[in-house]
User: What shape does this take?
Amino acid sequence: MTVRQLPPGIDATRLDLAREFRARPFGAHSGDLQHLLNVMRGLPIANKHVLVMTEPHRQWTLAEMTGQPPLPRLLSNQVFHSLEEAEWHVFKLRWRELTGAPLEID
Amino acid sequence: MADVMAYCDPQSAAPGETIRFMVSCVGAAEYRAEIVRLRSPQGPPDAPPFREEVVETVANGSYPGRRQEIQIGSWARVPASPLFNGLDSFTLQAMVWPTTPGRGRQALLGTWSAPVAGGVGLGLGPDGDLEVRLGDGAGGIATLASGQPLQSRRWYLVAASFDAGTGRLALLQRPLADKTFHAHRTVVTDMETGVRPAAGDGPFLFAAWRDDGPFGIGGFYNGKIDRPRLAGRALTPAEIEALAGDAIPAALADAVVAAWDFSRDIGGETIRDLSANRLDGETVNMPARAMTGCNWDGSEHDWTRAPGQYGAIHFHDDDLDDARWEADFSLTVPEDWPSGCYAARLRADGAEFHVPFFVRAPRGRATADVAYLAATATYTVYTNNLARFTGDHVELYQGRLTVMDETDMLLPRHPELGLSTYDRHSDGSGVCYSTRLRPATNVRPTGRLWNYCADLFIVDWLDRSGVGYDVITDEDLHRDGQELLDRYRVVVTGSHPEYDSKAMLDALDGWLRGGGRLMYLGGNGFYWRIAYHPRKPGLIEVRRSEGGLRAWIAEVGEYHHSFTGEYGGLWRRQNRAPNALCGVGFISQGFDASSHYRRTAASHDPRVAFMFAGIEDEILGDFGALQGGASGLELDCYDEKLGSPPHALIVAASEAHSNTYMLVPEEVAIPHGASDGVQNAGIRADMVFFETPGGGAVFSTGSIAYAGSLGHDDFDNNIARLTSNVLKRFVDATPFELPGAAS
Ligand SMILES: [Fe+2]
Assistant: This one.
């Protein structure tokens, strides 16, 4: 399966979607936010961001999948203490990757 | 850090019985083993504390570390015979359906020995064309290739013949006619060689050749082989065609050395030779049987009714039915150990590995009114689910970033641990067999809160309830049947008892009819049919046939279990939907956020007054360690069409599910788009209660996440209270009365 690229109307100007995600990374989303997330989460496994749980249910470290079979390679400067925090960080990285512009938000 | 991995056998033992532990420890001179009793999982900070208690036993101690290897990949072998190594002229032939042509050299059949370059071997060359090699073991090798790669997933007649008198070596590669318009052509080629085969004095192998290494095997093949033959002279193309039929033509009887028929003994590991020589052999590592053969015409889907069309074996380079390790230590369960969830906890140089096992009550009796049914069938089919981490769609359907820990990472680093029935083989075909006789990276009290780990939330609640309990396992239930359940008044399930054999369902059904009380505290339960191997313990088969939420889809015609002949797939497709047994059945899954239940008017029915004693809340379970709510992950709902009893009370139903919750495919005849939890009110968990004719009753929660809410706020919450109310009433012998039974 290939997930479509960003559809018309979802672009770097849609800061409302970023705010919606930051406020509620898990749970019901608007249609446009879900569409954006499907594109982000549908990225191929190679170099995809994942989390390595470095302290049981307390600390997670950003990693990316490399090799075959894919294994997480730690990006050890990024440590999170909640999954919400981690989701937001990766959302910003993917936003930049997909829209070409950094996510600058208050 | 060291790599420590282990498994045990048996997984369930009564006092006086002995469990052996098989350990591989690499990178540390020794490891420390402790037997622990597990009373709760290692959960998030807001969950109850991790209760892992070391149990004093002589098995505890330090043991020397050693590496134990696993040979992954399946093959078949016929013991060495003078009829093989005495061959000078020969023909090797088979029908083949390769699935990874071009992925390096692969063996089809023969006596080829790579270390000495001796014997004869027919196989696929590095580029996926047909190749025959013969060697004299003294440096002389003749190789002939067709030069035309075989296409993946197409049937071919392939043959190599050699006349020692003339030195003529010939190849035939003919695509079988099918209903496609693929370009294809028959290749016939030959050469002359001075080499004469020798040193092929070992076993005759299929899908592998003899090689260096600890197991002396290599060259694994991905794909099917049907009706392989060996003749003692160079057959003509017409004779090869004739020998590819179902039976040995009389005119060729003298020439034939062996004609194996893989459609015989499909349920076993034996392969049968139809010739007078009776050169029978065996499969190793459980390649898939009951696979459609080169002559399957679609008219029959049940191999037991047309075995002659199921003469193919599908070999995979990542099949595994048993790690075959030696035991490092053992534990004889002392007479005074209470039934419960235990594990061997192994530690070495910063690494930790748990090997869970279950102590059951002394044989033939119960020590409590309540049995906790550990879902070992589900644990086994999920064992070493690699695609959970590496699949392209995982983050999409999970609705959250993939999380791994150190133990999870053992799996991609050790592909020899084998796969789960949630994975595909390296050739893309579905994994239909799974064994517990190997280290499991995902059956443990730590890490991802799923199955075994999440089930410990229920164990924790039960343990603190003060009502005693015994632990029984799916495998015990399969073997012992209803007699095992008849010793108990109440059975409490785990969070996700998804897989059942017919014997298991029959036992539950019969026991309920006799007055048993079932507390199904999970979601997506009683969903798939499985077959336990009749002789090899702990080996389970799943065919992901028509319908259902499937990690892979069985090939058309391959819906029947090889172990038993039973039609595989959803119980729902076999007139035994879970709704009939427990009142609810699978409707949706999602993994980003859990939700709550809302009480219904029916919850005020006097029949369930016992359940709601002390509970005033309308909203139930808007909290929990499994994504914040009691209703989530996998959900079941009431459906009268599927057998939910009309007198059942839906006492609560969940609501407000998110976008990642989608209707299961068996509920979507025409895709309509309004299939997610935001738009579709049908996506919900129904909490259901009903009485049974024998004075028993069923309570079902229809949600995996329910388990994670029990311990919230130190077990002082409406989910724990409600569940404990049910347990208390269910333990009470007073029969339940079936409403309206008198009329
Ligand atoms: Fe499942």
Q: What stands out?
A: Helices of chain A lie at 15-23, 31-41, 83-99. Residues 15-99 of chain A form one domain.
